[in-house]
Amino acid sequence: MSADKNNLFSNLKYDIPAGLVVYLVALPLCLGVALASTGRSDLLFSGIIAGMIGGIVVGSISGSSLGVSGPAAGLVVIVLNALDTLGSFEAFLLAVVIAGIIQVIAGVMKAGIIGYYFPSSVIKGMLAAIGITLILKEIPHAFGYDADFMGDEAFSQKDGQNTFTELFNAVKYSSTGAIIISVFSLGLLILFDKPFMKKVQLFRFVPGALFVVISGILLNLLFSRIMPNWALSGDHLVQLPVASSASEFFSFFKTPDFSAITRVETYTIGLTLAIVASLETLLCVEATDKLDPFKRSTPTNRELVAQGIGNITSGLIGGLPITQVIVRSSANIDSGGRTKMATITHGSILLLSALFIPTFLNFIPLASLAAVLLVVGYKLSKFSLYKGMYQLGKEQFIPFIVTIIAILSTDLLKGIGIGMVVAIYFILRKNYKHSYHYVKEKHRDGDVITLILSEEVTFLNKGSISATLDNLPDNATVVIDGTKSMNIDYDVLEIIQDFKKHAAPLRNIVVETKGINGVEVVGGH
User: Fold this and answer.
1) 209: Cβ contacts below 8 Å, ≥ 6 apart
2) Can you tell me the distance from the alpha carbon of 250 to that of 238, in angstroms, rounded to the nearest whole number?
3) pLDDT of the residue at 135
4) I need a surface site. Which of 45, 110, 309, 461 has the fewest CB within 10 A?
């Protein structure tokens, strides 16, 4: 934890290995999200473009030290529906550009402040849920059952299956070769996580995930020689588009169809993408800042501008829409990344590998990459997180658990929405209880009750203050003390005024006020 934690070049020994791990995580996710979003194998490269832009462009502009952006599974359904509505991928690219412009405007207008209003219990619940989702969704890939795309986060899949039926299918249609590769890969990752491995100079710089990928390739090649039935091929391997020439490579890049600028649907889809992508990004920013060992704070308005510029760029050259993504960001943190150079490194490696070694990448078994993601999922959802949240009490633990269950049974944004409702309920409940301090004293002439109002008294406190006034004993004296209050909403002043003028005289209650402007002193005697 050195003072130069923000220096981009003094931390390269940490950021380059972390960027390599993020690249290995991002590669199958970019391809998987692209295939799921477009349903077309000829558009797989759109995911790689989005990953490159998310790493290089967004990474360079963003104020986030550890956040990693790229194509997100949460936008898959929106993209699919948009392609049906607009009729072409090129018209959709124009909607992505419009979404980016809206995000830039939102950032300039300081809309990023929304990110500060997500309760901690919900953010931590999101992290735990994503960890569990990763584990459940990657087990089939570790077993060699690759029907669903890597990186899917939703409970219900577009093929009619869901998270749990997929697990049964994985066991039913498992591959011996994939299981051996994934178990060996997990063993390597656990070994590399041991303290004694860090003492070896080579293993400080070369991450375990790279050894996992190389070992997976070698094991699969060995199977093809000695046990052909165990060998993995086709959908069980990375499937990066391979260009036979420079002109074919550049044909992977697309440009928007600007004739769609006159269509209302283009703007509707652009606005939808901007809203959803911005919400996912702000949620991820909050989560990443909580995971950051240096506890740095990301400027959310700058993040929206960076995401907007990223989406404008991605849309102009044929990429999918971009958000900040917690799986890649947490992989960055777990791998020791310290600055945005890790993010930029991952985007640069995506570009260079797509240019120079696509054929080699297509030898990588998905089972090896599934093992890497299983470890990422475990680290996001450790038992210590649940224990810590439980110890904070039910007001934190219940929204935390509800968020987890909701995300696991629906998807990320719906689950967050449900978790927010529960968290807000507990916030309102606490606000209801703690809007004032109640003091009761016995005197010869009757009870004297003092209500000391809190610093901020808002319309949210109307219910509790009104109920307390209604339950005051007859013939009492009540002193409502607002001397410590910085602000008292008109709604509350109105309740106090009405009580003093109408209810108090009927019940022979004397009401005195201190430090409350605009309320007359009214007595019942």
Assistant:
1) 20, 21, 24, 25, 189, 335, 372
2) 21
3) 96
4) 110
